[in-house]
Design goal:
Elements: H1 2-35, H2 48-59, H3 65-82, H4 91-113, H5 117-120, H6 123-152, H7 165-170, H8 177-193, H9 201-210, H10 222-237, H11 241-269, H12 274-286, H13 289-294, H14 299-319, H15 327-344, H16 349-362, H17 367-391, H18 404-416, H19 423-430, H20 435-441, H21 448-451, H22 460-476, H23 478-487, H24 527-542, H25 552-568, H26 579-589, H27 597-612
Helix pairs in contact: 1-3, 1-6, 4-6, 8-11, 8-12, 9-10, 10-11, 11-12, 11-14, 14-15, 14-27, 15-16, 15-17, 16-17, 16-26, 18-20, 18-23, 19-22, 22-23, 25-27, 26-27
Length: about 625
């Protein structure tokens, strides 16, 4: 009996040893993602193996007891996860983890050297990248699997309810008034300290336009410009421009807070646990993106708030595909929010129309109403764009803004391969952009310097010749075009990219003209309070854990996770509720600046709804409660 059992035991021990070796490699690789430097290291040695070991040693910074503890912790996590009885390998989760791991490597490289050279420069860099990739892939696979399992198992629904009646009320039970008041109480200090409001550069440009100081254009939507004009007139009645702008900010705060409280009410109607709603309320009250942007005036804030309302109504309708008694109120609300979206940001129509078209696929009883809504919005926007603005002699969107991606690709090509271009190609480019300045103006993370070289007299046939040259250059060096696009967008997919600190949130009044027609200023008596609040905002941005709530890439990852989860559980019609967020990401991808917070505000504002739609109870009809 011992003789028959011994070989079996020996085989089992070998298999366990192999597993433990694999777990060790994974745990060490995951720890090295925090301790290994991906930068190139150069060590002189005639012996290749000695050179390899020396460079590898120089790349690691792991002399700490903390790293030993982390290796042991990760080893135990991997062993427990992969040896559990119900473990099943899931290809879909592996693909998601693969995607995230790839962006972590690309992000590290582009953030450091504005190219993928830290990954592919030589065999040693590839070796280090493989180690880091293994570590990221291993931990992301487990993280994604646990997140999906948490939602799919329904454990979120089994959280103990809160017993305190007041806490239940403020988290959305009953009237929307309670959470609305809580949000307002938390935001009022921001409103007062920021008096009259936070006014970024583009906003001040619109204010100058509204006062007739500079030319009126639709480059910044004139709807918002005329709103500023209205509130400046109101301010004049009180003898102060500050008062008018403050009233505008107060109205925005009231409306945005009410919209957020409506989302908490919807969560309550969907049987989302009290604790989850309370966490979401905390999110609305204290994550700086919300209160800070609530008191920030401008086209992007207005657009993001109305897109939030539009998406909230969409999700409610998707969740209740049967007949709803108060559908006219919802349809009117959706139309008005859509109308404000397309007139408050010039690319808003490219988000709204596809979102409405998607709704037609799942809301059969509303197809005629939605089709009429789509046609009405297109007619109104077209009439505004092609009839009203020309009659008012108001200039529109700059042509060069549409071509951020190809212009940036051309610039990187000329920077990388200045001698590998024909005279015919150079001439074609020069008819669109000032050829001799392109390479000098190239900024890997912003296409604005290159777009500034656009020749306003360019004709349609010039563009045809330009894109012919653009394509032939692409065929010679396709990697340059890929790298140009990655370099200008990686921050939207890389959670560890903080972006420029001044772009995290806007602050103060960005006046850039001296004029007696507009007098806006921050009172000096509030300087200390503003400084304290400013430091709190930026401490939040760097504090471990919660700092990710300030990361654009993290919010994009949450969107990707929600999208993937709905596909994996075959709830395809709920993906329609994610279309506004997905298209907003696409807009960021085509935008001129990498990791620019105001471009990503729509995605960040919609994150709670993106998470909410993945909770199982939210996918049950709630018509019973109006």
């Amino acid at each position: 009996m011992n003789k028959t059992a011994y070989p079996y035991g020996k085989k089992s021990n070998k298999l366990r040893l192999i597993k433990y070796i694999i777990y060790s490699i994974m745990s060490i690789s995951t720890t090295l993602t925090m301790t290994m430097d991906l930068h190139t290291v150069s060590v002189s040695s005639s012996n290749r193996f000695v050179k390899f070991l020396a460079e590898f040693r120089e790349s690691i910074h792991g002399f700490s007891i903390i790293w030993l503890i982390l290796v042991l912790v990760f080893f135990n996590i991997y062993r427990s996860f992969f040896e559990k009885k119900n473990f099943v390998w899931k290809k879909g989760i592996f693909i998601i983890a693969l995607f995230f791991a790839s962006w972590m490597l690309l992000g590290k490289s582009y953030s450091a050297v504005a190219s993928w050279d830290l990954i592919f420069a030589d065999w040693f860099q590839i070796f280090k990248s493989v180690i880091l990739f293994t570590g990221y892939l291993s931990i992301f696979y487990i993280a994604v699997d646990l997140i999906f399992d948490f939602f799919h198992s329904g454990r979120i629904e089994n959280l103990y309810p809160l017993s305190n009646i007041l806490v239940k009320r403020i988290s959305g039970e009953g009237s929307v008034i309670f959470p609305w008041l809580v949000i307002l109480i938390c935001w009022i200090p921001w409103l007062i300290i920021s008096y009259p409001a936070i006014l970024p550069w583009d906003t001040m440009n619109q204010i100058y336009q509204s006062a007739g100081i500079i030319e009126l254009t639709n480059y910044h939507p004139i709807l918002i410009t005329y709103l500023f004009k209205l509130f400046l007139i109101i301010g004049k009645l009180f003898g102060s421009d500050n008062v008018g702008i403050f009233i505008f900010a107060a109205f925005q705060v009231l409306f945005f807070a009410y919209a957020l409280s409506l989302s908490l009410k919807l969560m309550k109607m969907s049987s989302i646990p009290d604790k989850v709603r309370l966490i979401m309320l905390f999110f609305y009250c204290f994550v700086p993106y919300y209160p800070c942007n609530a008191v920030t005036l401008g086209k992007d804030t207005t657009y993001s708030i109305f897109l939030f309302v539009f998406t909230l109504i969409n999700i409610y309708l998707i969740m209740n595909r049967a007949k709803i008694d108060h559908d006219s109120f919802l349809i009117h609300g959706m139309f008005l929010s859509a109308l404000f979206c397309i007139f408050s940001r010039n690319n808003g129509i490219f988000v709204i129309i596809p979102s409405l078209a998607g709704l037609m696929l799942v809301l059969k009883q509303y197809r005629n109403k939605i089709l009429i809504m789509i046609l009405t919005l297109i007619i109104l926007y077209s009439a505004f764009l092609f009839v009203i603005l020309p009659k008012m002699n108001i200039s529109q969107v700059k042509v060069q803004d549409v071509f951020s991606v190809p212009f940036q690709q051309t610039a990187r090509y000329l920077k990388t391969y200045p001698s590998d271009i024909t005279d015919q190609e150079a001439e074609a480019i020069d008819r669109i952009l000032e050829y001799n300045k392109i390479a000098e103006n190239y900024n890997p993370e912003s296409s604005d310097p290159v777009k500034s070289l656009y020749r306003q007299n360019a004709r349609a046939d010039d563009f045809i010749n330009y894109f012919h040259a653009w394509f032939t250059m692409f065929m010679r060096h396709p990697s340059v075009y890929i790298q140009a696009t990655l370099n200008n967008t990686y921050g939207y997919f890389y959670p560890d990219e903080p972006g420029k600190s001044e772009d995290y949130v806007f602050w103060g009044i960005k006046s850039y003209l001296t004029t007696d027609k507009v007098n806006l200023y921050n009172p000096e008596k509030l300087n200390d309070a503003r400084s304290i609040l400013f430091q709190i905002i930026y401490t939040f941005r760097v504090f471990p854990g919660i700092s990710m709530l300030s990361s654009i890439g993290f919010h994009v990852w949450l969107l990707i996770l929600s999208f993937s989860y709905l596909i994996m559980i075959h709830q395809y019609h709920y993906i329609i509720g994610l279309i506004p967020s997905i298209l907003s990401l696409f807009v960021c991808f085509l935008s001129p600046i990498n990791t620019y917070s105001r471009y990503a505000w729509p995605i960040i504002f919609l994150t709670p709804l993106v998470i909410f739609i993945c909770i199982p109870t939210c996918r049950e009809p709630i018509i019973k409660e109006k």
